[in-house]
Amino acid sequence: MSSQVAKAARRVAHELHGVVVSAGLMQKTVKVRVGGQKWNKVVNKWFPDPKHYLVHDPNSSLRTGDVVSIVPGWPTSRHKRHVVKHIIAPFGAPINERPPVPTLEERIEDRETKKAAKAERRLSRTNS
């Protein structure tokens, strides 16, 4: 399992910081706005260019307005490619009153158990 953690740590190129703009409307998913800027050559000026990411929130512990840190992870669905690393600044309810955000090791362990259960189901289906 330590090799899985090492591979995941290498895969993290950088972490992004953003604000949760939509939470509670989708199961285990939040929308995070990450700030950015874009240079306009005609006007010679920087303009705001925020990007929105759909982020996997396994325990549904985020609320709208939270400032969070997100990192790239394995694809969870068609548009979800990032996962919450930790909450930087909570908005509303304190962090200790919410479900905890799982660590990288916990997420890898959960993924491995789900993959093992799937392989077992597939094996039992082919043997029948």
How would you characterize the overall build of this protein?
This is Ribosomal protein S17. It comes from Metarhizium robertsii. A hairpin with a 4-residue loop joins strand 3 and strand 4. With 128 residues, this protein is an alpha+beta fold. It has one domain: Beta Barrel (OB fold (Dihydrolipoamide Acetyltransferase, E2P)), CATH 2.40.50. The relative contact order is 0.18. The strands form two sheets. A five-stranded mixed β-barrel has the order 1-2-5-7-6. Strands 3-4 form a two-stranded antiparallel ribbon. The mean pLDDT is 90. The chain is 27% helix and 35% strand. It contains two helices and seven strands. It starts with a helix and ends with a helix. The radius of gyration is 18 Å and the shape is globular.
Quick gist of this model?
This protein has helices at residues 2-11, 104-127, and strands at 16-26, 29-34, 37-40, 45-48, 51-56, 67-72, 82-89. It is an alpha+beta fold and 128 residues long.
Provide key terms for this protein.
128 residues; alpha+beta; OB fold (Dihydrolipoamide Acetyltransferase, E2P); 2 helices; 35% strand; globular; NA-bd_OB-fold; ribosomal protein; ribonucleoprotein
